[in-house]
Specification:
VC0802-like, alpha+beta, 24% strand
Length: 216
Amino acid sequence: MTNITQGVWNIISQDPSLQKNLQKNLINIRALSKYMINKHSLKASLDSVISAIRRYPTSKNFKENISGVREIFLDADVATKNNLACLTLRNQSDIQKYLAEVTKITDFEKRETLRMIKGKNNLKIITDMNNVQKIKSLFPEGVVEVKENLSEIRVLTPDVRADKTKGVAAKLSNELLTNEININEIIFCVPEIIIYVEQKDLLKAHETIIQLCKGR
């Protein structure tokens, strides 16, 4: 029974729209159970799948947390910017001395974008597309990948509790996933959250986040 329950819960956890509708009691659980058995070839009885779905954690505390996450986004300011690129560089031992040159390339008076995210193996630089070739010339052998035609969505939350509230990142990701929008990069600098999507998805992503900020 434990394996059946875990399997059913895994299916639910991978489907944000299903989670949302279960929380709102909008789903016929018997019909959903039949669908899961057929779709995922579950080796389980109908009653055991129904039981597992009913025990999926939508407790009072869980629902209160969902409500708290929604409050974080209420009345947030949302801004966008197009024509950006993300360069992934190998984190070489001498890379630090070239980063000062990257800042010189960026024209901050024209509000050009420059964001750097350093990991163990790679360094990512997000900048305006017109600076891509200039930056690549600084690292002729260190560029691993370049993603162009990205858009930035900046969400400035009015609630400073965003870093202390469980599920903020998951809520944003789930809303975009439900609308079939891929997140290329996401940066948390609370109370600001910065998301990068493909430029073709910007309108849909922007509308999705605006609806979230209106509490819908």
